[in-house]
Specification:
Helices cover 62% and strands 0% of the residues. By secondary structure, the protein is mainly α. The protein has a domain of 36 residues. The chain is extended and about 40 Å long. The N and C termini lie far apart (38 Å).
């Protein structure tokens, strides 16, 4: 059953949208440093930052400056 669960989890991840992002070298070094400090991946740091930014920009937050999620 563990193997079956692993296959389902893998299929679920495969359906998530992906993005490729290019960072200036200085910003990438900062991301690397933050990830190492927190013992997480760079992708995790970026997702966390984007989630906070999107929440702050959301119309429900009262801070939106145009556009909506």
């Amino acid at each position: 059953m563990t193997e079956k669960r692993h296959v389902k989890d893998k299929a679920k991840l495969a359906r998530q949208p992906r993005a490729s992002i290019t960072f200036p070298p200085r910003l990438y070094r900062i991301l690397e440093s933050l990830a190492k400090e927190k013992k997480v991946s760079i992708a995790w740091v970026v997702r966390e930052a984007v989630e906070k930014y999107a929440t702050d920009q959301s119309p429900q937050s009262g801070k939106a400056k145009g556009g909506s999620l």
